[in-house]
Write a structure and sequence with these properties.
The chain is 84% helix and 0% strand.
Amino acid sequence: DWRPLLRQRRCAAMAQEHQEYIQTKVNPILENLVTQVLLERPENPVPFMVRWLANQSPQAKEYFAGFGMGEAEKLRTELKTVQEEVRALEK
């Protein structure tokens, strides 16, 4: 039966495509990202990485610009206020 061999070749071809994609598209971005994280050494690296990645693409910049830079901080403050109100009501 030739079907297992065909399946094996398809899987090998797909694995090769994935490897090429990673090497040509993903690795260069990740290498630059890791370099910037190591140079900046931010206290909280995840937001730094998200901002850095967003700045690498005009579409991403446009998307994230809609959130506003202070939006996350505003939401944190609002959450803290609500949590304090809940604690006061529970007493």
